[in-house]
Design goal:
- The chain is mainly alpha-helical and 168 residues long.
């Protein structure tokens, strides 16, 4: 592969990883009302109750008793994925899981709201974020991340041992 493209991919991951992580965390912060109350500009939910109601709307095919659990699972996953992406820890696995979660979310939105309401997942950039997450999962290097720090430390340990891998 052309070294310019490899360089671009590396630099792109520096922007994409924290952008996706902050995007997830912003959504979680919104559902707890920290961006403001519902009705204010750029506030989607404003409180957790509205988020649970939206979860129920999107997952109309599930029993009502499962909706609060699903909302907790989604919130926990988005918080964990957001933090892991911002820190850059286990980035490839996290990015793949984010891509799967976001693709599922986008398709669920499309099915529940109808094709005419396809505008909602497009406006919220859910398809774009899913594509970005899946693309990030294909990256090999993640500069300015915990993954890069761990990789560098392993390389230093290996060279300090003379390149001999113990336990192999």
């Amino acid at each position: 592969m052309n070294t310019r493209w490899v360089g671009l991919a590396t630099v792109s991951s520096v922007f994409l990883r924290p952008a996706l992580g902050i995007w997830f965390l912003s959504a979680v912060v919104d559902r707890f009302g920290l961006w403001g109350v519902y009705g204010q500009p750029n506030v989607a939910w404003g409180n957790y109750t509205r988020f649970v109601a939206y979860t129920a709307k999107l997952n109309w095919f599930l029993p009502a008793a499962t909706i609060p659990v699903l909302a907790i699972i989604a919130t926990t996953a988005e918080t964990l994925f957001g933090l892991l992406l911002v820190l850059g820890w286990k980035t490839r696995t996290t990015a793949l899981l984010c891509g799967v979660l976001l693709t599922t979310f986008a398709l669920t939105m499309t099915m529940a709201l109808g094709v005419k309401a396809l505008k909602a997942p497009l406006d919220l950039s859910v398809f774009s974020a899913a594509g970005g997450a899946l693309l990030l999962a294909t990256s090999a290097n993640f500069p300015f991340s915990l993954d890069a720090l761990v990789r560098r430390n392993k390389q230093l340990e290996s060279s300090a041992r003379g390149g001999i891998k113990l336990g192999a």
